[in-house]
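Course assignment 3, question 2. Fill in each field.
Student: A.L.
Task: Predict the tertiary structure for the chain below.
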Amino acid sequence: MLLKNILNIYNLLLSLVAFYLGVSMFLERGVFDTFPQEWIGVLPFNNWASLALFGIIVFGVGNGIASTYGFIKQDKKIFTITFTMGALFLLCTVLPTILLGEWYLPTSALFVFSLIQLLLGLFGFLTFYLISLLKKL
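Answer field:
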């Protein structure tokens, strides 16, 4: 039960951060003032607004749904959902690094956050799977 609550809170925090960063990108505030010219044509996004909408829809809404599902339902599907969201997060973090050929400081933080989400989902799934196996013995 404690692991599910930690997982749900982590998903909720990732959702809130995705919404905050998405709004900051969309409004082009702070470090999101100008879109880097070297990214145009290499990444599938041409401006901050399209990247912001992608982040809000996929990670903001996705992690929000995962968190809500985890708080409402008391089954082990939340671990699969979290693992899937973590794998998608990791893919979306590593893919621009491969396309651009450069590693940026924010990318390393996103990489760590995606690994935490991925490992929490995997650890929870394996824990409940092993517990169910032990109960059968």
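Instructor remarks: The chain has a mean pLDDT of 92. The radius of gyration is 17 Å.
Grade: pending
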